[in-house]
Amino acid sequence: MPRTTTVDCPGCPPLRALTFDALGLIKVIEARAKGGGVSKVVERWGDPDASKCLVAASLNDRKVDPLLAVARKNGVIEILNPLNGELSLSVSDVSNAGVRPEDNAIAGLHLFRRQRSELKSRSCTLLVCTTKGNASIRTVDMADTKVDSGAPKAWNVCALGNISFSEVDGSESYAFFGGKGVEVNMWDLENCTKIWTAKPPPRNSLGIFTPTWFTSATFLSKDDHRKVVAGTNDHQVRLYDVSAQRRSVISFDFRETPIKAVTEDPDGHTIYIGNGSGDLASVDIRTGKLLGCFLGKCSGSIRSIARHPELPVIASCGLDSYLRIWDIGTRQLLSSVFLKQHLTKVIFDTNFNEEEVKHEEANTAAHDALSIDEVQTADETEKPPTKRKKFDGKQTNDEKTNQKSVLFSKLVVVYFNSERWGLSKLQAVRKHCLGPD
């Protein structure tokens, strides 16, 4: 049995999160009460299909015309409206031509926030990277999904090994790649050139070289692309400074299972890490000191961690099918939602407007109150006063017949629930209650 800890969930502040799972479903979770709301599923987009498993996702959180890009296991990339889940366009990965999607699945996806000034039509720009290291940047015209707005840039980020992730910095000028047998490396997206590569580990005492298996990474600060934190399959967390050296500046072990998810805090020095056994913790990366573990252990591997850009909360999800919301100050579990399928990623929707929700709830409450008042008024005006009939001790023939019928029915119930009477006994009872035929 998995190790779990039961704690009270006081509720979380108003927020909206999107989760992605192994059956290709996108579920919208919202908490609307300000004092501590209960998170619940309000929408579900798509139909369950294992071949459409969501392997990567990226949200363009612009205030005007926000977009959501998702990559599926079958190699299809979809652009959705994050407000209602409406499909805007669907394209196939051009870097996967002639190869089965299962053999070269999409490992990283990024939807650029910035718009190309030379493009007058509505368009979106995508960075796609596959497990074999095929990276490409393409701009797709939203009006005509069959035409690319300009020739796509394509290059290869690794000669051997498999890519596990790709991350883009806040300025969207640099990208970071790494994976199994692939040392973490950084590329300039404008020129598609490699600007830095981590130095491989030295050989051991027996002279055997074992390449590192990187599983996740994040930029320590969205405004500074020079510092990157990466997690490895041998439960190590490493900090790299591109401007200082090729070796890791800080390296430490966390528990005894592979690191599966790493994300940064806006303060620029705190990170949140999750591993394959469900441990979730915060670390001060400047010293490598463990600040503390989050209360209420998950019962499955953590696959994604998201930090809310405004609220002091983080969200985690993984193979135990739970979405959990945590308070970063007390490291206490605020809310949890069971979503039935294995979860692959979680994203916060920063366009969630609490004031609009309040206005909507106020209108709904006013409408419900008005409806109740109308019903009460109708009941008060339409129903005449009921007069109680005086009993004079006399019964009509119909009333006597109805009373005998009720008595006979009760006796029949007793007959079936107790010992069985003979037919003659039952006929005698009927004659006594209802009279002769």
Q: Your description of this structure?
A:
- With 437 residues, this protein is mainly β.
- It folds into two domains: 340 residues, Methylamine Dehydrogenase, Chain H; 34 residues, no CATH class.
- Helices cover 14% and strands 40% of the residues.
- It is built from three helices and 28 strands.
- The protein has a four-stranded antiparallel sheet with strand order 3-2-1-28, with no helix packed on it. It has a four-stranded antiparallel sheet with strand order 4-5-6-7, with no helix packed on it.
- Strand 4 and strand 5 form a beta hairpin.
- Helix 2 packs antiparallel against helix 3.
- The chain is elongated, with a radius of gyration of 32 Å.
- The N terminus is likely disordered.
- This is Transducin/WD40 repeat-like superfamily protein.
